[in-house]
Amino acid sequence: MQEWHEIIIPSTPRARQQTEAQIMKIVGDRGFSEEARFSIKLAMEEAVTNAFKHGNRFDKNKKVIIRYSCNDKNFTLSVRDEGEGFDPSRIPDPTAPENLTLPYGRGIMLMNAYMDRVAFSPTGNEVTMVKENR
Amino acid sequence: MNAEVKALAGGKVGLVCLEGEIDFSVLPDMRTALDQAVASKPLSLLVDLSGVTFIASDGLGVLIEAQRKADDDGRKFDLVHPQPHILGMLRKTQLTRLFKIFGSVDDALADLG
Fold first, then answer.
1. Residue B72: count of CB within 10 angstroms of its CB
2. What is the 3-state secondary structure (H, E, C) of B35-77?
3. Residue A1 pLDDT > 70, yes or no?
4. What does the alpha-carbon distance between residue A108 and residue A27 come to, in Å, rounded to a whole number?
């Protein structure tokens, strides 16, 4: 049975840095590979940035709820914001020729590329991702 | 993150050396360094990524913005020696179609002729 941890942070840079560092230390202590650690760090950065920027719109009074579970085999991360949510299927493909020069729009694509499983809640304001420790 | 801006080849080439982790918190500093290099109007601008250990999508976006500014001004904008994880990101996002990537600053300078 997986043990879950929950951290609720305000939409501030300091709070996110401390939380991300705390989680990455746990992942490192569990012996995750360098590739897996890079993937988790990237996916977490993208998910929390989306929660701050698009979900909570940098409102410091709004919270981001981060839940994670880590064992020797896999790491699961869930990031939820207080925004209205969105439909991830409507995000344009950032690798399409007409989108390649846009300086935004790659976060979800990178989460999908680097994590083994990615799922959004029906409301779209929560993403859950899994990375296997290979 | 550290950012250092240098002039090479008698000022014809601007070199921005970025080091460390490029996350959301350092984007203003990154943007400032790149803007400074673009504003000096070199014929070509190189961004040395050999010291960058992490970059998120917004950091890639800042590189794209800088390239667009350089391109609007008729100047080249190339990347130098990204570490394997960063090169992998550039490939997965297909930004290797947008950026020319050199193995070293010397290789980039040689390409300029």
1. 9
2. HHHHHCCCCEEEEEEEEEEEECHHHHHHHHHHHHHHHHCCCEE
3. no
4. 22
Min Cα distance A116 → chain B (Å) is 15
A49-76 pLDDT tens trace: 999 999 999 999 999 999 999 999 999 9
What's this model's pTM, rounded to 2 decimal places? 0.95
Q: What CATH number is associated with residue A19?
A: 3.30.565.10
Count: domains in chain A: 1
Can you tell me the distance from the alpha carbon of A66 to that of B99, in angstroms, rounded to the nearest whole number?
35
User: In the numeric block, which tokens belong to residue B16?
Assistant: 């921005």
Query: Can you tell me the distance from the alpha carbon of A109 to that of A69, in angstroms, rounded to the nearest whole number?
Result: 23
Question: What sign does the CA torsion over A85, A25, B93, B81 have?
Answer: positive
Residue B76 in tokens: 């080249």
What's the one-letter identity of residue A101?
T
Q: Which of A35, A52, A107 sits opposite B57 (nearest CB)?
A: A107
- Which one of A42, A101, A106 would you mutate to disrupt binding with B, by most B Cβ within 10 Å of its Cβ? A106
- Show the tokens assigned to A18: 């401390």
Which residue range(s) make up the domain with A65?
Answer: 5-132
Q: pLDDT for A24-45, tens place per residue? A: 999 999 999 999 999 999 999 9
ipTM of the complex: 0.93
